[in-house]
Amino acid sequence: MFSNAGLDPAFGVKLPGLLQDMGLVNLTVDNDTPLVQGGSPMATIMKLSAHQLAERYLATGRVTKTDLTRYVRFAEDPDSWAVYHATVAVMAQKKPRGGSTKTKGLAKQ
Prior knowledge:
Layout: H1 11-21, E1 24-32, E2 35-37, H2 41-52, H3 54-59, H4 65-76, E3 81-83, E4 87-94
Antiparallel strand pairs: 1-4, 2-3
Helix pairs in contact: 2-4
């Protein structure tokens, strides 16, 4: 569904490399990937989201009604654990003109 909408579900994984390719330095990457139990508030939100987006998922041709039914059962099962989403944050700096990547005020190398 995301790919059909022109979105890249792997963008977070590619982001640090893209910033490096742009010449940015001193990258700091933070990856938040919560592992949640079935029946938890997050699992419930994902289950409700699947219900709401069911027609879109089915329209991709990659998901069946059986897949959605299994997903909902999985999200409700307290014996199941899942990663439903991940958030990647990247901070970077422009390389200074002189080439040093030291913080302003510190001696250049």
